[in-house]
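Sequence dictates fold. Below is an illustrative record:

_____
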Amino acid sequence: MSDQQLQGRDLEGKIALVTGGTKGIGKAITARLLSAGATVVVTARNEPEEVDNSYHFIAADLSKADEVAKVATEISNKFGGVDILINNMGANTFPGGGFSALNDEHWYQALEVNLLSSVRLDRALLPKMLEKKSGVIIHISSTSGQFPIWESTMAYSAAKSALNTYSKSLADEAGPHGIRVNTVSPGLTKTEAMSSFLTDLAGQAGITFEEMTQKLFDRVGGVPLGRMAEPEETAELVYFLVSPKGSYITGANYFIDGGNFPVVK
């Protein structure tokens, strides 16, 4: 096998877990890691619409502590642990309208889904990485974590901001033991979740989907590249960070937003 072919399969022998890996960015990450030779475990709340035998699937709602424990136990029994952990699970399914539209339950749910699911899964799977003195953890956050839109992402943004801080702290703790931890913060991305989000907002505002899409672009100050990201573009960044090519990168938060973010990061 040529050096070029080996580089294309540089995750051979690695076990990777991708949460929320059946749709959107998670699905694209799963495909990219598989193409690089990794053995991939995927979790999601529901079975994928189409059976895919290229990865091992575990149905789990990771916003619940006992479901996280179930996933960790199955992975330990079947694979002995993971080398790569992609905490992609997250959702912005909370009411828009600002502080008065959000009750305690909405805030608890935002934190469970967007922060504590990752915290618990890291806590369950990191010890095996520490034993081997190697491993990579990626937290999929959002530009919303530093650029909140009060009308529609208040609880989600607060939870993602907390995830960013936690991720940096974990990187500092785990780095001396050979574990790299990074964050990837996508901006506007063309996914099923984004389509549903815009459809709901358009319905609430009484305007078309296209009009709401333009309003969102305007609200975030525009995107210099003039379009949403494709999930595969974020997946390529994630692959780079978990591959040997990213071996000296830890504690970073990478924004992939088409130039949207309005300040120097």
Remarks:
- The chain has eight helices and seven strands.
- Helices lie at 3-8, 24-35, 65-79, 104-132, 154-174, 192-205, 209-219, 231-242.
- Residues 189 and 229 are 5 Å apart (CA to CA).
